[in-house]
Amino acid sequence: MIEQNNRPFVGKPVKLAYMWRDLERRAERHGIPFVSVPNYPNDADELANRVATIAALEGWCPQFARAAYAAWFLENKDPGAIASLHGILHQLDRDPADVIARADSAEIRAKYASETEVARSLGIFGSPTFAYGPEIFWGDDRLEDAIAWCNADA
């Protein structure tokens, strides 16, 4: 998103205010608490993303993603900050020192870079994106479209 200058709300206060209000409405519709506007952008070093890479490889990515987003949206903690990551990983019964050290390893940095390249090759430019073959669907409001597309091909 950064390399494509696709951080659509940074430096645009009116659009950013709309985005947070829209998220607040969507959270209410889904029964999810919206405490306050969290800090944005965050995870400047992409450490939380590299931890998510480990979590994906080891099968605990859904739990990590939920905990990281809860820390961000409900506690206004940057999920990429070391202190926040320690709390998230403790909550998931993971050894923070071990996971963070592995997230900083050349192996995980290379895996994260290769997965980012896969996303580029698919034309992914934002999150969330759902992909099925060469087709991509961007935005959580496109999930139903992505499912319908997949089912039509079944």
Number of domains: 2
Strand order of the largest sheet: 1-2
Strand fraction? 5-15%
- Assembly status: single chain
Walk me through the structure.
The protein is mostly helical. The protein folds into two domains: 88 residues, no CATH class; 29 residues. It has seven helices and two strands; from the N terminus they run H-H-H-H-H-H-E-E-H. It has a two-stranded antiparallel sheet. A hairpin with a 2-residue loop joins strand 1 and strand 2. Helix 2 crosses helix 5, helix 2 packs across helix 6 and helix 3 crosses helix 4. It is globular, with a radius of gyration of 17 Å. The model has no long low-confidence stretch (mean pLDDT 89).
Task: Name the descriptors.
154 residues, two-stranded antiparallel sheet, mainly alpha, single chain
Question: Can you lay out the helices and strands and say which pair or pack?
Answer:
Elements: H1 13-29, H2 47-58, H3 61-75, H4 82-91, H5 96-103, H6 106-122, E1 129-132, E2 135-138, H7 143-153
Antiparallel strand pairs: 1-2
Helix pairs in contact: 2-3, 2-5, 2-6, 3-4, 4-5
Gist?
The chain contains seven helices and two strands, in the order H-H-H-H-H-H-E-E-H. With 154 residues, the chain is mostly helical.
